[in-house]
Amino acid sequence: MTYSAKLAALLGGSLLAGMAAAQDLPGSFDGVTVQAKLIGGQQYEALYARINEWQEATGATVEVISKKNHFELDREIKSDIATGQLGWCVGSNHSSFAPQYPGIYQDLRALLPEDALSGFVPATLDAATLDDRLVMLPRAQFDVSAVYYQKSLYEDEANKTAFEEEYGYPLAPPDTWDQLADQAKFFADPPDFYGTQYAGKEEAIAGRFYEILKANGGEFLNADGEPAFNSDAGVAALQWFVDLYAANAVPNGVPNYLWDDLGQGFASGTVAVNHDWPGWMGFFNDPESSKIAGNVGVAPPPKGSSGARSGWSGFHGFSVTEDCENPEAAASLVWFLTNEDSQKMESAAGPLPTRSAVWDHIIAEAEGDEYRSEALTAFQVAAEGAYPVPRSPSWIEMTNVVYPELQAAILGDKSAQEALDAAAEAATNVLMDAGEL
Amino acid sequence: MKPWRLPPHLLLLLPAVLILAAIVVIPLGLSLWSSFTPFRLTRPDTMYDFIGLRNYARLLGDAQFWSAFGRTVLLLTVALNLEMVLGLGLALLIERASRGQRILRTIMMFPMMFSPVLVGFQFKFMFNDNVGLVNNALQSLGLTDRAIPWLIDQNLAFISIMVAEIWSSTAVFAIFILAGLMAMPRDPLEAARVDGCTPWQTFRYVTWPFLMPFAFIAMTIRSLDVARAYDIIKIMTDGGPARRTEVLWTLISRTAYSDARMGMANAMAYIAILLSIAFTLIFFRQLSKARSQIAAEW
């Protein structure tokens, strides 16, 4: 780093402290180049247009050296760690992936003034803090699920009467996981129509299992960090998936389904109820993409037997590497991409923000749009009870040994207890191999 | 005293040796070394912890690894044999065509032009239980009223993958065998006919022995492909559900990159390479046998 660049960075850093809080230009970094590895994809691109604004304002240059989906970016970052090539500065990050990269990202609290961080939802900042280090600033790509349903099915008088006769309580959008299962079985008419569906592999099913487990009062890892999901709460959670599959209330291909399959399935009008992410909000109600546009209702995520709602959440963010030569400039860019204006722009397209003021803004904007207001209210309830995955560097690796066992139970190869016991043993080995136990 | 110099022939070979070392030997050596370590991508320092044969010892007792190994052998055996039979049939039919043989040969090669990833997506969609072409066709024809779980059921998922593999690669066999058929001298066939051989006898004792070397070359090439089968399976089932279609390379890639356990993945890969070597040796031996038989008989 040249002397002038160092001076610019130093000046920039001090300017940054004064300006960030005021939602103003984040410093001056003339001649500095910030290399970035960013998540790519249609829904993430709009924000990157703002990078030009930051460049003009600071005099710095951003060089995007990699743009990939998160799974590919994850592999690339792991390879960078293995080869020690972490000289780039800004990287896209995700709450599920972040614990895997111990020590490669800087503590942003040390780079940014406290009031620059005050506008974020506190629970989200907590979730972005690992080992007392704020490793990323969350962007307006917060994910927590809620229940989408076909309204007409719930308004149909014949359905209401028949359901109450069969299940003994009135038909209404599900408030618990048990109610969701009852309704899914009631509405199912395979192979033309299914009651519900779920993602059946990889982290997707492990995450869904995790949130039903938590809603049932169980824990994935106990206080000592040992796998504890083969408890009664875990068996009940897994049995929920098993029963729906056995009752043909879900498509029999679900063990191979991931998020896109679920979104397309619900939009095709062949599924009654769908617990899904906020990113689909616009898609489901758009006549161009959805056969059920205008007929979609949204309810908060269901409660488990403990009375708590499910709230497995994740969010995208930006981090600054430890090896970055200009961390102040990088932190400025990260802050800029997650400030109020950036979040307003991103959330206008549907994704949920991670700043309180932007939440207020999008709810006010949605006034008069019944569907969007209802959806945002449901997702706001979901966000209040949201929690991330266990903060273990081995989370993804554990899900890789857990999900085949969950599938084995769903397909009837093992009982729920047998599958969870085998999964817990495999997850224990993963944690022991990683030196976490 | 004259200074020692590298002999010219060695000097001339040196660039090739250096390039080969950089491209092949060093990466192979590094991956072999890492298979004796607990190397994790996210903890580069683990590359220097020598643990001897512990990765290999763990694999020896790992039922999931050996299931994947067995499934890979099964896939190799069944896919190669079916591809050879179908390729032979295709080649014989095309060779018989008196008109449009060039167009037919080009059409036959179409599947090879698709990337395996595209083939995977295409067949994943076709075999989708809900919106797939196969189930919709069967239901429309009244042959079934249920959604057949093509990519879920143990046997059906394996068959679906096999169909995709065979569709994409049968042409390799057909082309090799067709080349053999076109290069075959006509005299022995005419002699067989004059001697009163039936068409089957002509094929069995004259045509097939001549084609065998071509078939074994195709077998060798395809055995390496199938033993590394990854793309199509990754897209169609990713080894699932419940590890029902797990083969060596889906397991190895997950271990190496998702789990970041590169040391263990390399140990698996070295065992997998033994499998490829074994199949290649078998086919080379068969190839030499077939060649000597032709040399003796013709």
Automatic annotation (TrEMBL), chain A:
Sorted UniProt keywords:
Signal, Sugar transport, Transport
SUPFAM superfamilies tied to this protein: Periplasmic binding protein-like II
Q: Which family does it belong to?
A: Belongs to the bacterial solute-binding protein 1 family.
Which interval of the chain is the signal sequence?
1-22
Protein name, per record: Multiple sugar transport system substrate-binding protein
TrEMBL record, chain B:
Question: Which GO BP terms, alphabetically?
Answer: transmembrane transport
A Pfam family that this protein carries is BPD_transp_1
Family statement drawn from the similarity comment of this UniProt entry: Belongs to the binding-protein-dependent transport system permease family.
Domain (ABC transmembrane type-1) ranges? 69-283
What membrane topology does the UniProt entry give?
A: Multi-pass membrane protein
What UniProt keywords apply to this chain's record, in alphabetical order?
A: Cell membrane, Membrane, Sugar transport, Transmembrane, Transmembrane helix, Transport
| GO cellular component terms listed in the entry, alphabetical order | plasma membrane
Name the source's superkingdom: Bacteria
* Protein's UniProt keywords contain Transport: yes
Q: Which PANTHER family match?
A: BLR7065 PROTEIN, SPERMIDINE_PUTRESCINE TRANSPORT SYSTEM PERMEASE PROTEIN
Q: Which organism is it from?
A: Paracoccus isoporae
Q: What is its main location?
A: membrane
What is the name attached to this protein's record?
Multiple sugar transport system permease protein
Q: Where in the cell is it found?
A: Cell membrane
List the transmembrane segments: 12-33, 73-94, 106-127, 156-181, 202-221, 267-284
Is Cytoplasm set as a keyword in this record?
Answer: no
